[in-house]
Design brief:
With 472 residues, the protein is α+β, with helices and mostly antiparallel strands. It is built from five helices and 21 strands. The protein has three domains: 81 residues, RNA polymerase II/Efflux pump adaptor protein, barrel-sandwich hybrid domain (OB fold (Dihydrolipoamide Acetyltransferase, E2P), Beta Barrel); 113 residues; 171 residues, Efflux pump adaptor protein, beta barrel domain (Elongation Factor Tu (Ef-tu), domain 3, Beta Barrel), CATH 2.40.30.170. It is elongated, with a radius of gyration of 56 Å.
Length: 472
């Protein structure tokens, strides 16, 4: 044991912390001071901003209540009912009254083309000719066959349909032989009764008569057969003549194709030619799309479709105004000629045909047109001056004055109406909105207006003087 006064000797040396140095102690105190000052600065700044904001708001509030705004000077016009023609706008393409594709009736090589695209042709005019040699030979062959049959009949030309074959020479001869045989038979019978002739001679006379009668009947049948054959040959000749005539393609029309009388005359314009000289024409179905396209361009027709909602508005005989791009500023007149009574189930539209006179040929078939159909007249359409409309962010509105306060009212412009004044014309706009007639709408002074603003109406004399200055 060791005495308390004796120092202990540890088995391991203990670690002794070194005392802090003066430099480290000063750096720690400086960092704590800077952090504290930064936090205090932020708090003071926030407090100052909050107090400043509240002060400005209080001043603004006090200013609004202490300084009332003067009424804004404006001009006004009343909502005026006017007579407006209602209409429906349509677009479409012009068509000829008739568009005809001419196809050849006979095949062959093209020998001559007589008209080109753009030419005007009339009923009976020749358009094209096909080589005729083959068809001329066919006519000659059919004519010779007919002559052969007529020769057998002893005729030079084919008789009419009511001709009696008994008048033919061969039939007459057979009939005479029959009569002679009958007369001889009668004589033999008389002599046989007197027993002048034998029974054998009577039998011979009866046989001769029977043969003569059979020959007469056979000659009638042969004559009828020959006559039918001749009529068939005549039909073949007519067919050959028709095919020969069809080697010349002509302009068709009402009545006779070659007639140019007032009843059968029709004028066309050649819209397309699709063959050339020397080209072979074929009559096989589907092999030839056509050699000419003809169009009747007086009158023209506009074929268009309208939504189903307009079905009750469109009537036969309504007037139509048409515009085309190649005649800017010019209006062409038309008339509703046909209305399809059936509405298409898929598109919910119905077809309308508008007839367009084109006597001066200023319009062309195929043109795109814009048209306006005048439907009915509205006697009380509300209108406002054009300058009363305010458009902002896709919304159109007007300011209405009630008891010295303006109120915003949204409207939909429907169309423009020109009103003639004493010195100049004014543009008014038909509107759709909650605006009773005679309501006062603002026409100037919009820069400071908002919903609920107090206003005062400028005197009419001042307004008139300024208008005179702007329109001397």
């Amino acid at each position: 044991m060791t005495s308390p006064d004796e120092p202990t000797t540890p088995s391991q040396p203990a670690a002794v912390a070194a005392p802090p140095t003066p430099a480290l102690h000063k750096a720690s105190r400086l960092s704590s001071f800077i952090s504290t000052m930064a936090v205090c600065g932020v708090l003071l700044g926030a407090a100052w901003w909050l107090m400043s904001s509240q002060h400005h708001k209080a001043e603004e509030h006090a200013g609004r209540h202490s300084a009332p705004t003067d009424p804004i000077a404006i001009t006004v016009e009343s909502v005026t009912p006017r007579v407006v023609q209602r209409s429906v706008s349509v677009v479409g393409s012009l068509y000829g009254q008739e568009e005809i594709v001419i196809r050849p009736k006979v095949g062959g090589r093209v020998a001559e083309i007589l008209h080109e695209t753009g030419d005007r042709v009339s009923t009976g005019d020749a358009l094209l000719r096909v080589e005729r040699t083959e068809y001329e030979l066919a006519v000659a062959e059919a004519r010779r066959s007919l002559e052969l049959e007529l020769t057998k009949l002893g005729l030079k030309q084919l008789p009419s349909e009511d001709f009696d074959p008994a008048r033919l020479p061969s039939v007459i001869r057979a009939s005479v032989e029959e009569q002679n045989a009958l007369s001889r038979l009668n004589r033999v019978r008389e002599l046989s009764k007197r027993q002048v002739l034998s029974g054998e001679e009577l039998e011979t006379a009866e046989t001769n008569y029977t043969v003569a009668r059979a020959n007469s009947q056979q000659m009638r049948l042969d004559a009828q057969s020959l006559l039918a054959t001749a009529q068939h040959r005549q039909a073949s000749l007519n067919t050959a003549l028709q095919r020969l005539a069809e080697t010349e393609i002509i302009v068709p029309g009402p009545g006779s194709q070659r007639s140019k009388s007032s009843a059968g005359h029709q004028e066309y314009v050649v819209a397309d030619r699709s063959v050339a000289v020397g080209e072979m024409l074929s009559t096989t179905p589907g092999s030839d799309p056509g050699v000419f396209k003809l169009v009747i361009d007086h009158p023209l027709k506009l074929v268009t479709t309208l939504p189903e909602r307009h079905r009750s508005e469109i009537k036969l005989g309504q007037s139509v105004e048409l515009h085309v791009e190649y005649s800017p500023g010019k209006t062409f007149a038309g008339t509703v000629a046909r209305i399809n009574p059936v509405v298409d189930r898929a598109s919910r539209t119905f077809e309308v045909e508008i007839m367009v006179p084109n006597e001066d040929r200023q319009l062309s078939a195929g043109s795109f047109v814009r048209a306006t159909v005048s439907t009915h007249v509205d006697e009380h359409a509300p209108t406002v001056p054009e300058q009363a409309l305010v458009k902002m962010a896709g919304v159109t509105k007007v300011f209405v004055v009630r008891d010295g306060i303006v109120h915003e009212v949204q409207v939909k412009p429907q169309g423009q109406v020109t009103v003639a004044g004493s010195r100049y014309s004014e543009s008014w706009i038909e509107i759709d909105g909650n605006l009773p007639a005679q309501s006062m709408v603002v026409t100037s002074g919009f820069s400071q207006l908002s919903d609920g603003s107090a206003v005062r109406i400028r005197p009419a004399g001042v307004v008139a003087a300024r208008e005179q200055e702007s329109h001397p």
